[in-house]
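User: Hey, my collaborator sent me this sequence without any context and asked if I could get a structure. I don't really work with proteins. Can you help?
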Amino acid sequence: MNFNEKKTRLAMQLPRAVYIAICVLPAILTILFYALRSNTGVMDRIAMRVASPIRGALGLFSSVYPFSLMEILIAVSVIWLIYYIVRTIIVTTRRRGKLKILGKRLLVVAVAALYVWGLFCWLWNIGYHASGFAEKNGFAGGGVSAEDLAAVTRLFASRANELAPLVQRDEEGSYIEDRREIFDISPLIYQHVFNEYPNLEGRLFRPKSMIFSWLMSRTGYTGIYFALTGESNINTRAPLFLMPATIAHELAHQRGVFAEDEANFVGILACVTSNYTVYEYAGYMSGLMYLRNALITADFQAWLDISDSLCDEINRDLQEHSEYWQSQKTVETGVDFLDTVLTAVTGTVSDAVNTAYDGFLRSQNQELGLQSYGACVDLLVEYFSPAQ
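Assistant: No problem. I've predicted the 3D structure and written it out in structure-token form, which is a compact way to encode the shape of the chain:
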């Protein structure tokens, strides 16, 4: 008896009700999520008592492996999908009952996709509809004054100026801290945050370096937390001086800080209170860049005054940061026609990814979409303002 015959016989032994249950279960899970997501109390309880422990267990399991399980799962899924599509085309052209065969094979893909989406909703999307970090911890919100914004921006610029010469640099002044050490000490940086906000306390797992970092750079992203494996995945090609802040941001997601603005704030707070110079510098620089963008709009002259005070090391880091991300918008192979085509494709893919992610965030109660990453300014000013 060959493999196909065994598979067919096994399939025949399963009752029809089992097939129906397998197909219907993910749909029920997904529908139930959308039906309950407006009930914050229910979302809070499930997020804390069910989703968080499961994500923690997944993180513990995935931490055994030094590589990213997320990348492997995605790569295997893409390869399987390509194979399945090709196989479907072959099968439907060679056998009778083409529509029936096509329908069954499409059903397999649909059910698999629903399982992934249903699990993702209950493990991660649930947090967007539960009480956020700011609400749980008594942040007032409601905007900040230009004066307070300028004061906190000056504070961050001053601290960044103090720390910039203390990190390792080469003879030309470029940042050259050891990446492995940055990753190794990352689970230790949250002690102050845990002391101040006990509701975040819990185990942290070392983040993973991404094999497909080049692809992340092309789409403009520096890290991603993947709830289905409990992993924080980091783009290791992005400018190194901000990588500690990216790691802290993704670790905030590990501890159940879902909204991007709140994860930015918590990550920056973890960095600047970590007592590790590389993390402190990254935290102040990350915060400074968000504060700068807000202050330029609120009080351009105040920003010019602060900008004039920045040391050479900071200006070099900012310049290299800008040059790197600008370089990711173009492709240079030496062949003009090919460069033009690949650059256009890169831009189209990047725009598509950003549009899709922006739409996803907005659909999950994040009204600012991608702009929510910069909305941490209000939290930074409220926490660090001398007036508080």
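In plain terms: The chain has two domains: 3-129, 134-384. You can pass these tokens on to your collaborator as they are.
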